[in-house]
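Hi F.,

I've been meaning to write this up properly since the lab meeting, where we talked about keeping a consistent format for the predictions we share between groups. The idea is simple: the sequence comes first, exactly as it goes in, then the structure tokens exactly as they come out, then a line or two of notes. No screenshots and no reformatting. I'm using this chain as the first example so we have something concrete to point to.
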Amino acid sequence: QVQLVESGGGLVQAGGSLRLSCAASGRTFSRSAMGWFRQAPGKERECVAASSWSGANTYYADSVKGRFTISRDNAKNTVYLQMNSLKPEDTAVYYCAAQASPFRSSSTYYRANEYDYWGQGTQVTVSS
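Output, unedited:
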């Protein structure tokens, strides 16, 4: 059974930092893209960051460029999201996702329907 388990969410003041982790089990994603999505109340789920299997190709939403960094440790089957300079508008449930097929085009990274496995989500709340 494949599982993605996120951790690291919480409450932080504006300007602060959090580091999210997503540990995968049940299969390896060392050759597949993985990403972080978020969904705020009343809004659609959006991709904030995604990474190719090697980390050579990445995607960032314009709203987080320069503040968030995605990284991965394939030996640990884990992907991370370092979030700095957090803003109240970053408040959302953050989800980790992984593609089942390896070596897919980077044009698929930001599309939620291109991901096959999802974590349960972790709440990030940024207070002003």
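Notes:
The mean pLDDT is 96.
The longest strand covers residues 18-25.

If this format works for you, I'll send the rest the same way.

G.
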